[in-house]
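User: My collaborator sent over this chain with a note saying "see what the structure looks like." That's all I know about it. Can you take a look?
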Amino acid sequence: MAQSTAPATAAPAAIPAVAPISLKAIAPWALFAGILMLVLLYFVGAEQGATSVVSGENVHEWLHDGRHLLGFPCH
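Assistant: Without extra context I'll predict from the sequence alone. Here is the result:
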């Protein structure tokens, strides 16, 4: 029986250098995420109170369990 040898494997490919992301590229997304988080925090924590933007109790009912989960008292 003839013995076959496996071909030698090539050296692993070089990992390309990753360019750093500049602050100018991140700043708009960070600002957008911050504003979005503040809006969500307002609706979960303060909506249906003294500063209510939406009348009625729909927002309160939709976010009721989330309020208790995050520790906001609502009743």
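A starting point for your reply to your collaborator: The chain has a mean pLDDT of 78.
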